[in-house]
């Protein structure tokens, strides 16, 4: 937001169309230029949030902005980093899954998650009039592309990635475009459903030990605990690569163990992880209060 040179920067509550509406209403009533379309509003969201794995209510956000800004001066920028390769037709993201791509000003895709690579300069691979990115693809109109090439300092002053990364990203995109990953996407959704079902067996534990009631359709799961390092370490000792996420990455009180599933996981691995957590919970229960 700082780098955007926006005249005014306002936050709204996480993933809340009501909060967006309240913020927009306040700003519009204070600024006639917003009302008559002479000033722009850029609304920036992630499609899949990186920590809780929840999916943004993009259609509801669009409805709010289009209703309150009928001069079409509300522009959405959607970061699809965690949706790329996982959601939408051939992994094209949540925006395309919803079929609202024509109503989104910018979609940004990165390559470090499902594509198992890094960023890249990918002009030729953009689906529409896309822009290059050093760390991302930016799907946008040609004016925005020209603007970013000339004004985006982080783009101008960053060296492009080397050929091996570009080659690996291209290979991943060829697999996506060729439909070869559709089966993997399907397999991942089965694993997500299975893990969610298995996690239900843990929900009897009180929130002071483990909170597992917030599930999404994404492969990112957040197991809230007051002792996430301890839980993560127990899982790691059993061979599961999961991480404790602590403040300031998440707000204090929202510490968790983050579990990210991938297509290569098996149901047996999920069973094993659940059993490891269950065993830890039983041992934790027997210990005196030490939270
Ligand atoms: C929301 C979001 N956008 C972008 C990125 C950067 O993605 P990448 O690592 O693929 O370049 C991240 C990385 O975690 C992220 O969480």
Bound molecules: pyridoxal-5'-phosphate
Q: State Rg.
A: 21 Å
What is the H/E order? Answer: HHEHEHEEHHHHEHEEH
Reported by name, the CATH topology of the largest domain is Aspartate Aminotransferase, domain 2
Number of domains: 2
Low-confidence stretches: 120-133
Distance between the termini: 37 Å
Mean pLDDT: 88
CATH architecture of the largest domain: 3-Layer(aba) Sandwich
Structural class: alpha/beta
Q: What is the β-strand count?
A: 7
Tell me the CATH superfamily of the largest domain.
Type I PLP-dependent aspartate aminotransferase-like (Major domain)
Q: Can you tell me the overall shape? A: globular
The portion of residues assigned to helices is: 25-40%
Strand arrangement across the biggest beta sheet: 1-2-3-4
Main sheet? 4 strands, mixed
CATH class of the largest domain: Alpha Beta
Family: Belongs to the class-II pyridoxal-phosphate-dependent aminotransferase family. BioF subfamily.
Domain Aminotransferase class I/classII large: 18-277
Protein name: Pyridoxal phosphate-dependent transferase
Cofactor: pyridoxal 5'-phosphate
């Amino acid at each position: 937001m700082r780098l955007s040179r926006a005249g005014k920067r306002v936050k709204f509550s996480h993933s809340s169309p009501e909060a967006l509406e309240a913020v927009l209403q306040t700003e519009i009533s204070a600024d006639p230029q917003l009302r008559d379309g002479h000033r722009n509003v850029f609304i920036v969201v992630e499609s899949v949030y990186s920590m809780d794995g929840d999916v943004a209510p993009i259609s509801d956000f669009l409805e709010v902005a289009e209703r309150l800004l009928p001069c079409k001066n509300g522009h959405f920028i959607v970061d699809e980093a965690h949706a790329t390769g996982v959601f939408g037709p051939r992994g094209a993201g949540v925006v395309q899954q919803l079929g609202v791509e024509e109503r989104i000003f910018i979609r940004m895709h990165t390559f470090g998650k499902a594509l198992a690579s890094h960023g890249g300069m990918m002009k030729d691979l953009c689906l529409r009039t896309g822009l290059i990115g050093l760390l991302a693809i930016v799907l946008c109109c040609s004016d925005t592309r020209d603007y970013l090439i000339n004004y985006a300092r982080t783009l101008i002053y960053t060296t492009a990635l080397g050929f091996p990364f570009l080659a690996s990203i291209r290979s991943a995109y060829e697999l996506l475009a060729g439909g070869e990953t559709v089966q993997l996407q399907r397999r991942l959704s089965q694993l997500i459903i299975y893990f969610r079902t298995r996690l239900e067996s843990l929900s009897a534990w009180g929130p002071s030990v483990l909170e597992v009631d917030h599930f999404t359709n994404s492969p990112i799961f957040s197991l809230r605990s007051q002792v996430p390092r301890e839980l993560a370490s127990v899982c790691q000792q059993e061979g599961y690569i999961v991480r404790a996420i602590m403040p300031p990455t998440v707000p204090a009180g929202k510490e968790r163990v983050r579990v990210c599933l991938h297509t290569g996981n098996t149901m047996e691995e999920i069973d094993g992880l659940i059993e490891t957590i269950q065993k830890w919970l039983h041992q934790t229960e027997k210990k005196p209060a030490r939270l």
